[in-house]
Structure formats: C-alpha cells, structure tokens
Amino acid sequence: MPNKHYTVTFQPFALKINADHGEAVLQVARRAGIHINASCGGAGVCGKCRVTVENGDVSGGISEKLSSDDISAGVRQACTALVESDLTVSLPEDYILDGDLLTGESARKHRATPVEFDVQTLQKKGVFLPPVEKFFIELPLPSANDNMSDAGRLSRALAEQYSERGLHIGLSMLRKLRRICREDNFRLTATLSRPVGKKAKTQLVNLQSGNWTDRNYGLAVDIGTTTVYCQLIDLHTGENLGMNGNYNGQLSYGEDVISRIIYAEKPEGLVKMQEIVVATINNGIESILQESRIRREEITCITLAGNTVMTHLFLSLEPHNIRRSPYVPVSTLFPPIRATDLGLQLPDYAIALVFPAVSSYVGGDIVAGVMGAGMHLSDELTLFIDVGTNAEIVIGNREWMVCAACSAGPAFEGGGITHGMRAAPGAIDDFAIHPRTLNPMNRTIDNKPPRGICGSGLLVIIATLLEHGIIDARGKFNRDIHHHRLREGRSGFEFVLAGRDETDVGHDIVLNEVDIGNFIRAKGAIFAGANTLIEEIGLSLEEIDRVILAGGFGSYLDLDAAITVGLLPELPAEKVLYAGNGSLLGCRMSSLSNHIRLDVLKVIQKMTSFELSEVPAFQNHFTASLFLPHTDMQLFPLVAEKISERKIDLEQIKQDD
Amino acid sequence: MPNKHYTVTFQPFALKINADHGEAVLQVARRAGIHINASCGGAGVCGKCRVTVENGDVSGGISEKLSSDDISAGVRQACTALVESDLTVSLPEDYILDGDLLTGESARKHRATPVEFDVQTLQKKGVFLPPVEKFFIELPLPSANDNMSDAGRLSRALAEQYSERGLHIGLSMLRKLRRICREDNFRLTATLSRPVGKKAKTQLVNLQSGNWTDRNYGLAVDIGTTTVYCQLIDLHTGENLGMNGNYNGQLSYGEDVISRIIYAEKPEGLVKMQEIVVATINNGIESILQESRIRREEITCITLAGNTVMTHLFLSLEPHNIRRSPYVPVSTLFPPIRATDLGLQLPDYAIALVFPAVSSYVGGDIVAGVMGAGMHLSDELTLFIDVGTNAEIVIGNREWMVCAACSAGPAFEGGGITHGMRAAPGAIDDFAIHPRTLNPMNRTIDNKPPRGICGSGLLVIIATLLEHGIIDARGKFNRDIHHHRLREGRSGFEFVLAGRDETDVGHDIVLNEVDIGNFIRAKGAIFAGANTLIEEIGLSLEEIDRVILAGGFGSYLDLDAAITVGLLPELPAEKVLYAGNGSLLGCRMSSLSNHIRLDVLKVIQKMTSFELSEVPAFQNHFTASLFLPHTDMQLFPLVAEKISERKIDLEQIKQDD
C-alpha cells in the first residue's frame, strides 16, 4: 500500500505541514520547528505534550493522563496521536513562541544530504561492474576442424563474446570443466572474479551447466569494534536485499581495540578473536539468508572493511605492534582470500575482499568510507569525518589526501557521559527547549521513555543550551539562572532533562559540566585535527568546499548544532553530506563496481597519514578548540549572531512545572 | 682417481686407438671400426671374440672357452679383457677385412651431438633466473618516522634491493611475517616464486629468519607413460644433484595411454590413476633426497612434463575425450599449483609447474623438449623428433613451428618386434656383421648375455643388413644367400643374431621379415610425417638445417644407420643433435631459467598442430617411405652409394661356424 500524505495545519499559526499517514503529531510539529513540551521522549508517559485536534482524525494519543472531558474536547498527547487524515491541530497558548523564534527554530533543522548512489547511475557511467559476474555462454561444439581443448574453447568464447581475456582457470575448475561442458550441450554459466590489480588475471571461480546469470549475490560487511553489519546485494540488479547488524562477539573480551589486542597476545588468543568475529559474521549471513530466501550457494563474493585492528583480528594477523610504538601493523594490504579459508560459511568459490588500510590508526573502514562517498573522484576540497569510538579525519580531493585519527574519545557514542548511551531505543537523540519555561522537548529513539543520551542527542542538547545562553563558551552553566531544572549535582552543576518518573531507568536523566567538558574535548580534538591537517598542507579551513560525515551519529545529524558547538566549520547545509555507515557504503559500492577495487591502491597511496601527537601545531589548535564554538569567533560569525539573538531573557523565565 | 689413457695398437693394421683404463678391448676395437665376432653381446659366454695380446697388460678376458695353451700364448676374449696399459693386440686372420671396408665401418660411427646447456652460459646470457629464488634482506628497523607495515617494509626492501616489485603476499605469509621479522632483528630470507605470465605477480612463498639463500632446490620430473624420471637441481648453483628413474606405477593398468584412459573412466579410476603416478613421483623424490642428503623442506619448486594423457592423469583431469573424435583434452594450459594440493610430499610452499601441451597428441613433454633443446630460439630450420612409444615431430624455428604425432608404433622401443625389448641390460643396442662369415658383433647393454633387441639396436641391425645387401629395399631377405644364420622361421625368413646357447633367454634371438616390416612402417611414418608437415608449409626436406633427436633411443643413436634406413634425411653428422630425454631437459632448463616459463605460452601459440590422418598428402608420403631408405632414392644419394659399395659378394660367403 503506497503511503498516503496529509496536511496538518497548526493553529494559531495556520502553518501547513505535510505529514505521512500514521506519523505522530509531535513528529510533524518538530519538523515544523514548533516546540511542544515532551520530557518523556514521546513515550506517552509524561502527558505534557497536549494538543487539541480541531478537525480530522487521529488514532491513539489517549492515556490516563487525560480526563474524559479533555478527550471529548479533542485533547490528545501529540507524541502518540497518529495522523489519519488532514488535520487542524491547535497548540496550548503557553507553547506558543513568537513568530521570530519559530522561524529560527525551523531554520535550525538542517540535515546533511545523504550520500547514496543508485545502480542506474553506475550503469550509465559504465562503472556497474560487480567484482564477480556470471556469464552465459553457448560454446560451438568441438569438431575435427575445431578441436581445441575445453578450457581453450571456453577462454576463446569469453574473449570473443565478453572481451574477457587472459583468464586464470585453476585446477578445481579444470577438474569439472569437461563434465559441465557436456551436461547441457556446451551451454554453461561461468562465474568470473575480476582482477584487483593490473598485474592480475580474471579468475574463473565457478562453472554451472545452463544459464544462471541472474542468480548472483554478494555480501558487504562492516566489521565494527562494537557492531558488525552485513548487507546482501543482488549483483545482477544492484539491489539491496537485506541488512543486518549484530554486536561483535569480541565485545566480551574488551570494548576497545587495545583490550582486544591484549587478549589476542595471549596463547590461542588470536585464534579465538578470529573465530569469534567470524562467528558473528556467519550469524549475520545466516539471518540475512533466512530473511531474503537467497541460497547460500548463490553468494559469490564478500567485501569487508574494518579498522586496522579489526581487520588484523579477522584475518588472524598478529596485531601486537599496533599498540606499541612506533605502531606498526603487519600489513595494510590484504590479498583476495577464499572465504572458506577464513571460516566463513560460504561456497568454496566465494572470494573475500578486505579493504586495505592506510596505517595502524586509519583503517580500511575509513578508506571504504572515502571511496564509498566518492571523495577520491571529486575536485572539491573535502573534509571527511568518521565519528565512531574514535574519530578519523581525511582532507583532500581526487589529487591528494591527508588523514589522521583523533583521540576524540567515545563522547559521540555516548561514552564518558554520566547518562550517555549508544544510539539504542530510549536514547534522547533530539532536543529543544522552551525559552521561557526551560521545558525540554526530548525525542527518543523508537519513542521509548528516556534511558539516556546518545551522541547526536548530546550534540543538540549542548548546542541548544549554548544558543540560549544556558551554558557559556566554556561549557559552564549560567549561575544567574534560577530554575529547578538547573541544580548542583554530584559532579557540579547539571541540567535535568527528564525527571525520574518520566524515565525508564528509575532516576533523573541529567547533563552536567563534566559531561559537557568531555564533549568539548571530543569535538575540539576533531576540529583541531582538521585544522592541523589542513595547515600542514598549507591551506586553511575556509577553503574547504564540503564536508562528508560518516559513522555513529545515527542516521541524521543536526548540522546547525554541529556548527554551533564548533564541531564543523560554518558551511551552507547543502555542502554537508552524510554517508551513514561509510565502511558499509564502501563495501557495497565495491560489490557493484570493481573500479573501487582497481582504484583503492592508488587512493591509499595518495592518503598521507599523520600522527597528530607528533605535529607540534596540534596542541595549540586543540587548546583553541576547547571553547564553544571556538576561541576564534571569527571562524563562526553566524553562530555568534545566533547566540546573541537567541539568548534567553532571564526576566521572562517561568518555573511552570 | 683421474682416468688414465692408453694407446691400443691393432695388428696387422698398426691402427692406434686411444683407450681408457679398464675399457674392454672389444669396445676399443668397435670404436676403431674393427669387426670382432661377438655373438653374446660382450658377456664372455660365446668365446668367439678371441684376440692375442702381444704387448702390455690386460686384466680378465679368461674363461673356460680358452685352453691353458691359448692363455699362455696371450689369447684373451676381447669382450672381457680390460686395458691396463698401452697394448699391442693382434687379430685372428679371418677377422681381418680389407682396408677399404675398415674405413667404411669406422666412418659409420657417427653420433649426434648431445644438447646440453651449462649454468655459466645461462649466467653470462643473464637468463639464469630460477623460478623460485631466495633473497636475504636486512630491513631498516621501524621508527616513528618510518612506521610502515611489516609487509610494506619487506616489499619496499625487495623493490629497492632486488628490483622485485608488485609482490603478492598471501595470507599464510602475512600470518608469520611479524614473528619472522622480529626473530633475527629484521634479518630474513624471502623465497619468491616468479610470475609465469605478464599478468601475474611475483609471489612470496616462504619466509625464514636469518640467511638461507644457499639452500634452494628444485625438482624436474618427466612423467613418461612407461618411466618417470626425477632430477634434483641446486637452484643456487644450477648443479645437478641426482637423478632417478622408476616405472610409472600406472603400468599395471595398461601399457599405453588409451588403456589408461579407459581405466580412468571407471568409477574412482581417475582418482586412482592420479594417486598412483603421484606415488611414483613421491618414491622418486624420496630416493633422490636420501641419496643427495638434501632436506625435503629445502625444495621450493617442481617442474613436470608429460604427454597430454599423462598430464591429465597427474592433475586428475578427465581424459575421456582425448581418445574420442575429435580428440579434445580438458586443457592444454595448466596453472601453477601448490605441490601439496596434488599429494606431492613437498613443503606447502613448493609450487608445481606443469608444461603446457599443444593438443591431445602433442604434449608438454614435446614442448619441454623443443624448449630444452632451444629450438624456439634458433633461426635454423629444425626437425625435432621425439621417439617414444609414439613419435612426435616438430618442424620450424623461432618464428613458427608445425607439429604432429605419428602413429609410429612401439618398434623403436622394442615393441611389436619378435625379440624386441626395452633398452635394458642384455638388450642388443649395437651390431656389426662380418661380410664374409656373416658373423654378428652384438653389443648389449651392460655387456650382459643377449636377451633381445632394443630400438637403437634394431636400427643398426636393419641398416647393416641393408648395406650388405642381406635385405633389400622392401626389407626382404636376399633368398640367394645360403647361410645357416638365414632361415625360414615361424614368421617367414629370419636372421639368427644369437644362438640359444649364447643368450640368457633359452632360445635363439632372431629378426624376421615381419619385424622388419613393422620397423619400416615406424620409420616410414616418421619420415612421411616430417615430409608432410614441411610440405604443408610450402618447404621441402632439403631445406632443413638440422635435426634434434630426443627420446627413447638410449643415449646414443647411430646417425648413419638412421639415415641408411631412411628415418632421417641425409644431413652431415654435425647437423644432428641429441637431446636425450627432452622432457626432462626442458623441465631442468625451466627450473634454472624462468624465461622458459615466460616464453612457453608464446611457443605453444606458434606451434600449429596437424592431425596427419586428416592431411591427404600423408598417405602418399607414407607409402613412398615404406622402402629402405625410400622410394625416391634421389633423397638419399649417399646411402645409395654406400649400399652399392658394401654389398657383399655372395661368392665369398663362408659358413665358418
């Protein structure tokens, strides 16, 4: 059933907003930039987000928080009231902000443009070229005048019909060739794995009698330190057939890469680490196959990317020296490997390709992200930032790139924050505040009662507090504000985002100055890293044409918030792209276009890796970045303007709950 | 002890001949072209080869056939009397031929020039380049300014120090690299396997800490239908370290390739054929390692060649269609294979290389022979003949080659001949006849009493009978000769080479007209094949510059005999080369010079294979070749002259024993 679209009219503004069938009214208001109190994250628990439906149908939106009089008067909880038709909704008077502020709020909801490629474009450009492809061939029958060998006959046909020359035919293929040729009168399907370098041959990896060209599937796998994502791809059509994320089984042996390395150094530790991550991937493959009803035998290739440590553990390469100065990995290049040789439960003809790394700290996941987002093909000077447990930065264009890992710490993944958490159900991932009542509008993932704050939520909360002057440039709360939500806690001043009764965790959810300090160091490290790298090559941040964001921010990052806090330089929203899981994007791209694999060695050779701690300028840049947004406000003129406009009027603050 | 040289003077001719210490007097006489009766092949049994030692010392030469008077008069049996000093030996009067005849006999002992290459020449030409080579490297230690990966460090050093670029490092090598680097402070030995084609990379196949460059060995293996030869080669010095021949274990399943194919078509038959030949090779390797005291771990490569069927069986490729029209093999090209994957008892880093074939009937053994003998590098128009159970012919030069297999049958291997046998101890392999007494001088292999006639013996016997007019051009005995050695036997007329009491087999050894007919068809097929091939490309036999002989003739072929019977065209002796086991020669050459492997694809592409039965002219040529030497005597003017000169005088024939 195609999704129906309705119009929701918010009164008293007469603001008309498009809405999908079944969308929550709170969600629609949020898109409009309209503030509605919602402490509980849209879970229907706090009962604060009351609106009145004047016209049209909603479903839900009713709880014991509403009296029967309210209900008959059309009052509903905006968080759980779902749009069923065109609506007119009026907002309680005290929610209503003046027109100016409304516009400001609305303008802030900029999102980065998602990076996606579509198969038609690849096909048009002639770069749709899966690394493993099936070819159907009808061979001329052998005769006295044409009695070349079966292998020669096949090679000749592939060269003549498909320009596939210089084929490598291994022993296992030769052993079945005669039978396959004669099973269906010399009509057969040859599965070819394309070469990864110039000095390599196309390999014949499978033979089937008859025509099987439309049954050709590949897997893309991001081996994250925390989560392993698998994606199933139809190599014939380019279609995505399914996706699956599982915690990396290695998590039980340590959350970060260093503790994994330490475990791998124990006797049999490396073998165990390898087996565990392979088991995680095998589980992912199993689920995705069950869901998609694709047969395992039809998977011909798997492309994987991970950081350098994850890649070493996956391949059972000793990672010992990655954690010891001068931080030397065993290798940054990895050969194509038979998937079964790694323990992957795939057919013996499936080839595993692992993205190469740049260094111990800039891994194949970053290379995949850079290439998946097409940075290596663009003339524009691009800042690529992948934010995960650590952050990696790449600056450059098709000609050159510099890169570094930043010790940003895990704040953007909710780590090191009092009530931080991963981007999981119940995590506050968006936020607004009423400038007079200081009431928060928390949005949580899956509309569950709040359980904590995830990275993207943290970013918006801090940006909002800064804009309204509730915290200052050093991240300290304005002690002149006297409000029950602002209080002295165990770790200094804190802001109460949700009261204990509104949450799912039995305590208040707060953000304190220590949390803000950790966040500032994280964003400061990234900004300083980018600033240092670009200076190293004699340019400055102002010259950056665009930004590509990848990684753990969840699917949407609030761009204005990111600029407000000084994580990103001031750029127009359309110049910021969001690549999502860059590693997975690169793997998927590589599964559809062998050009990625052909270019990857050139790309990593262009990527100059810096160890920021070895660059003297970094420390100065870092210190200058430990302000919101930055010591040098000339870098952020629009932010400066916004802060002065939005600053709340202490006189008007009401303690309304 | 260096070999001492003496002079033996034969009386009454005063003919002085150089002799080695310990050489039999009969052997020395034979080299002089002097005929001494010796029916028993030099085994000391017949007692006919009496000579008188006038001066100097011999050892042996005494048996119960000599009286004590004889012995004290200096009479000895020439076959077992060994030269111990300078000698004067007089011959019994009835042995003595007139001077003219003596010269003729002497002139006949032309041998083909052995083809050999020496390592110094390869080195001088810059083509000494073993396919697998060890390199010792001292890597610069990693530092903060130079912290590339271990694999990158190794690749860089190999490129800088040895110009080895674009190395392929497989997973198993990456897995041990970190440890090996650090075991001896980044001093290590890398074993590299060179690429076989342009579109291939040098492979890192082994790593050892420390310097092991001088311990690098290879094996060359000729997989013959009958015999498997293994040779051990020092890849560092090029030296031959040992050689070994064993019957192919598949012999129990059929003597020829067709019966082997039939067996391989049975359930599990192919697997069994593969296992058996691998076991034969493994036995060969085992013996050669024991004799040479080289450690198995030090063998890094093995190069093999065989005919197309033997190669298919060795690789477990279905040979079924090789014996069925239109005679299609599975493949003529074979990839490099890990030796252990074939069941060879070699280290897992040893790579097996198998010579490619041209067609079902011109196999890798022929390609190896052609390349081992350097035919593919020469401007001279060369006729290459490999005579084994079948015969293969190649004609051409560095620019082009045509080739074919001839259904010569096994006559040259002693097959299809009443008293034929392989070239084993007791086989008559050389022969002369006394023109008046018709007494034979049989030489046997290892001087054992005669057991039969091998290929090279058969050739000389028939040539000798022809020269003396004992048989005619059709191979029929001259019925006008009345002599006890010429008689009617079960299969028509026959010549008695050795009486029952002189042999080791309990019966007379004879050659009959059926045998001669078989021989004529064999030599005729080869000559007609060569003639047909050369005509196909618009040339004629007269334009051939040289001949290279390979294969089962034993180490020496009597060139004059080969020309006399019309097997070879009339060419000066120095234009005939003998390559011995061409297949083994090619494998050994390929083990020392990777250029062979690089060139082999180009060579087989130049080799146009003909199916002689499909060429109409062949039948005419064959019919014309069914004469000794040929219907067209203008092709053999010197032979014609010789026959008219040597023809025996029927009047003078004596029945002297």
Distance between the termini of chain A: 44 Å
The strand count of chain A comes to 30
Summarize the biggest pleated sheet of chain A: 7 strands, mixed
The residue-averaged pLDDT of chain A reads 89
Sheet with the most strands: spatial strand order of chain A: 8-29-28-19-20-21-30
- How much strand of chain A? 15-25%
* Global Rg of chain A: 28 Å
> Unreliable runs of chain A, pLDDT <50, ≥5 residues?
98-108
Structural class of chain A: alpha/beta
Largest interface by Cβ-Cβ < 8 Å: A-B, 49 and 50 residues
Proportion of helical residues of chain A: 25-40%
Shape of chain A: globular
Per DSSP, the total helix count of chain A is: 17
What's the multimeric state?
A: homodimer
Can you offer a commentary on this structure?
The structure is a homodimer of 657-residue chains. By secondary structure, chain A is of the alpha/beta class. Helix content of chain A is 29%, strand content 23%. In chain A, the strands form seven sheets. In chain A, strands 8-29-28-19-20-21-30 form a seven-stranded mixed β-sheet, sandwiched between helices. A six-stranded mixed β-sheet of chain A has the order 15-14-13-16-18-17, with helices on both faces. In chain A, a hairpin with a 3-residue loop joins strand 1 and strand 2 (15-20). In chain A, helix 7 (257-264) packs across helix 8 (269-292), helix 10 (364-372) packs across helix 14 and helix 12 (513-536) packs across helix 16 (617-624). Chain A is globular, with a radius of gyration of 28 Å. The two termini of chain A are 44 Å apart. In chain A, 51% of the residues are buried. Mean pLDDT of chain A is 89; it is low at 98-108. At the A-B interface, helix 5, strand 10 and helix 6 of A face helix 5, strand 10 and helix 6 of B.
